[in-house]
Design a protein that fits this description.
The protein is an all-alpha fold. The chain is built from 8 helices and no strands.
């Protein structure tokens, strides 16, 4: 297990602060569990946006990696966009959001794989039309939180020098799988009990706990190799013959 970097206190504070905003919706605006789950789905789009920035700013001296960006960034937009669209479509129908609106029933006419982005646009429109207006402040808070982490860890922490296109391509999916299996399971349970206040509070706290775990996991750094450690590098013939 790699140690945690020591200079991301601001991003951790912002993460916790942004995740406390749903409590305002619960206590002041009578949000039910559906709005909380939808807010966390919208956060996937925020994470995807910053991941595109990470891929664009990734430092590489390899010509093939520079060309790889030209392919991987559009591919990520379409693939991740389609993934989020299907996820959001499922949430809309399971939690009965959108007054029967079916994005799949629209005339999807964008060319080729761009249809996934059109589907995402339709799902976002359907979900946003069904959310309370005050949710915009929660979305802004999460956007700022992810932005602080992006600047503090990726830019100032120079993760752009050590990350890879492959790692960045898979990172958001790992977050969705871990985060939303926990949140969706909890959300379904809370929904079946008509969204009682104590369980919604527990759901938000669960999300904060999972978020902190994923944040620390994604920003661990490998310790430098000590003199006492054996190197796994295979010596070449010249070194053996000395």
């Amino acid at each position: 297990m790699f140690p945690q970097k020591q200079k991301d206190f601001l991003s951790l504070a912002a993460l916790i602060g942004a995740n406390l905003i749903p409590f305002i919706g619960i206590f002041l605006f009578d949000w039910d569990v559906r709005f909380i789950v939808l807010l966390y789905w919208i956060e996937n789009l925020i994470a995807g946006f910053y991941n595109i920035l990470k891929m664009a700013l990734l430092k590489t001296d390899q010509a093939k990696d520079k060309l790889g960006k030209l392919f991987m960034i559009p591919f990520f937009c379409m693939h991740y966009g389609g993934f989020c669209a299907v996820h959001g479509f499922f949430l809309m129908h399971f939690f009965k959001i959108g007054s029967g609106i079916s994005p799949l029933g629209n005339d999807l006419h964008w060319w080729g794989p761009l249809v996934f982005l059109q589907l995402l646009h339709s799902v976002i429109a359907g979900i946003w039309a069904s959310t309370p207006p005050e949710m915009i402040w929660a979305v802004i808070g999460l956007t700022i939180s992810h932005g602080i982490s992006f600047v503090e860890n990726y830019i100032l922490g120079k993760e752009y020098k050590t990350s890879t296109l492959s790692k960045l391509m898979h990172q958001p999916y790992q977050r969705i799988m871990v985060m939303h299996i926990a949140i969706l399971a909890g959300g379904i349970f809370v929904l079946q009990l008509n969204s009682p206040l104590p369980l919604m509070i527990i759901l938000v706290l669960l999300k904060i706990f999972v978020d902190l775990y994923l944040h620390k996991k994604s920003h661990r750094v490998k310790p430098p190799e000590t003199k006492g450690q054996k190197s796994s590098r295979i010596p070449d013939k010249a070194e053996i013959s000395v």
